[in-house]
Known about the structure:
The structure holds two protein chains of two kinds. Chain A is an all-beta fold. Chain A has strands at 5-7, 10-14, 19-24, 31-37, 43-50, 55-58, 61-66, 71-76, 85-92, 101-102, 106-111. Chain A starts with a strand and ends with a strand. Chain B is mostly beta strands. In chain B, 0% of the residues lie in helices and 50% in strands. The mean pLDDT of chain B is 93.
Amino acid sequence: SQQGEEDPQALSIQEGENATMNCSYKTSINNLQWYRQNSGRGLVHLILIRSNEREKHSGRLRVTLDTSKKSSSLLITASRAADTASYFCATDAGGGADGLTFGKGTHLIIQP
Amino acid sequence: AAGVIQSPRHLIKEKRETATLKCYPIPRHDTVYWYQQGPGQDPQFLISFYEKMQSDKGSIPDRFSAQQFSDYHSELNMSSLELGDSALYFCASSSPSRLIDEQYFGPGTRLTVT
């Protein structure tokens, strides 16, 4: 069953603006991760936030997690054309070698 | 640093044929995961292996099977291929005993069934 749902499905902004993507999930998690995928290419790990964390930063990325609302957000500040990609959240239930459950993804387009 | 290696990168097969995809995890990683990503879809977890034993099972069709070998590489075997099997197939690996939860993804194998 689908775990993560993301919104918006598509987002187009001007270079230099901030981009915010949201993800909701349904079951308890051990951690939530965000991945980037350029068209038809591999998945690149961006950031991981554990269930006992509320906010995490990595460079221009800021992730928040609200376990009471079962939601997370990814903020990319000062966007660049190279940030154009699809962004997926993925949840890990933490049961050993469990597979990740991915959301539908947000397609982000940065206009130069 | 060494990454996850998948082969082949591209594969074209006809309906009802079989296909074998290979995955070589990052050295010293003992856990391997397989995912399927259809066109315009999110990745779907298929199956995982830890220390050569099947660990978790997702939405893997009965026509598919997989195993992890003594050198930790894994193979996904797909039989009686259908048009709907056309997708990107990713392999990921993670570090010993899941000390770090991050899964490292390979570049994927693009399977086209005609």
